[in-house]
Design brief:
Length: 365
């Protein structure tokens, strides 16, 4: 891997992505195999004037061992020191940078209900802290090429070639390759996305109609007061503009979860917890999925839809231009951060408070 590119990537994350501010604390999350990149990012954070960079290391292989050996009760229990750490986060409002490099198959074979039960148990305790800092700090999710993920994407290549190819794909997706002036490129990119979102907002569209020769014939209404958002966001406390996802190509808003009708047919596969769901369709009535089908991954799709009471309704609708580096590459990344930016998409489940007027001031209900 070109060390130079890696250090440019670290700069992009800190300057444009998280936009770390002078005197601000940073929480940096990475897998142990990404220590080289994480070190570069930590260095850039300090260069930007961060007061402290706190590392959160994880290891996918150990995570799997936990699921294979520890009880749901143990895994779902949030320890008191973990909670203290979250309380500290609410106090400090650090910028948070998540570097994702997990093997898409990391937890494959672990029963989906075990994973979702553990997730729910932990969320019960931790969600309030996440909600508390929502909109009040900068955060960023980016990806890094790990051997296991790379082999999943480039199956026919040997490990080194696959990793090299995945890195190059990641750099293209975040407009780094060949762009010495990436800061300018990103400014233009986020400006364009904001213009599109502003235009959509000015039209106050009430509903979206989808039609395609693949069988899609679908209408979804937007929630009254729905707000289209683009790539960039603002920390309301310190005013720092940041880009929470890199790459990002979408403008998105909040549907009315009670009002979706018709059938949506996928044009691309969906990678979900180690399963590939292919050639699938969802049929909605009164906002809920009432029927579904999949040529491959039917059971995974069924589990996804059965997650909880909200998982059959929509939380996000997003529009993505046909021409974008990700879409044109034609690569299936097995990672939603990339794959969702290759096509228009709908997301089931929870919505984003920022996508409705005054959403941040509303209570959960
Ligand atoms: Zn999206």
């Amino acid at each position: 891997m070109d060390k130079n590119m890696l250090s440019e990537y670290a700069k992009l994350m800190v300057k444009v992505g998280a936009n770390v501010q002078k005197g601000q604390k940073v929480r940096l999350y990475a897998e142990v195999d990404q220590y080289e990149l994480a070190t570069l990012v930590a260095k850039e954070c300090y260069n930007a004037g961060a007061s402290y960079v706190e590392m959160f290391w994880s290891c996918g292989a150990v995570e799997r061992l936990h699921y294979e050996n520890a009880s749901v009760e143990t895994l779902g229990t949030v320890l008191s020191w973990e909670e203290e750490r979250q309380k500290q986060m609410v106090k400090d409002l650090p910028a948070r940078i998540f570097i994702e490099s997990a093997d898409p198959d990391e937890l494959s074979g672990i029963p989906a209900d075990v994973i979702s039960t553990v997730g729910r148990m932990r969320s019960k305790v931790l969600k309030k802290y996440r909600d508390e800092i929502d909109g009040k700090h900068q955060w960023l999710i980016v990806a890094a090429a790990s051997p296991k993920w790379a082999k999943k994407v480039f199956t026919d290549d040997d490990s080194n070639t696959a990793v090299e190819k995945l890195w190059n794909a990641i750099f293209s997706c975040v407009y780094l390759d060949g762009n010495k002036n990436w800061e300018q490129v990103w400014k233009q990119h986020t400006d364009t996305m904001r213009e599109k979102a502003d235009w959509l907002n000015s039209k106050r569209f009430k509903s979206l109609r989808y039609k395609s020769s693949n069988g899609t014939d679908f209408t979804v209404q937007l929630i009254p007061g729905a707000k289209w958002c683009g790539a960039a966001d603002i920390n309301r406390v310190n005013g720092a503009a940041y880009v929470p996802n890199m790459p990002t190509e979408e403008v998105f808003t909040m549907p009315d979860y009670r009002k979706a009708e018709g059938k949506v047919v996928s044009s691309r596969p969906l990678s979900y917890r180690g399963n590939l769901i292919k050639d699938f369709s969802l049929t909605f009535h009164e906002g809920k999925v009432v029927d579904f089908d999949a040529r491959e991954g039917y059971d995974a799709l069924k589990q996804l839809l059965d997650t909880d009471e909200g998982s059959k309704s929509l939380g996000e609708v997003a529009l993505v231009p046909y021409a974008s580096p990700i879409s044109e590459m034609g690569i299936l990344f097995y990672n939603t951060l990339f794959d969702e930016n290759a096509s228009c998409h709908l997301a089931l489940g929870e919505c984003y408070p920022t996508t409705v007027q005054d959403g941040e001031k509303m209570n959960e209900e």
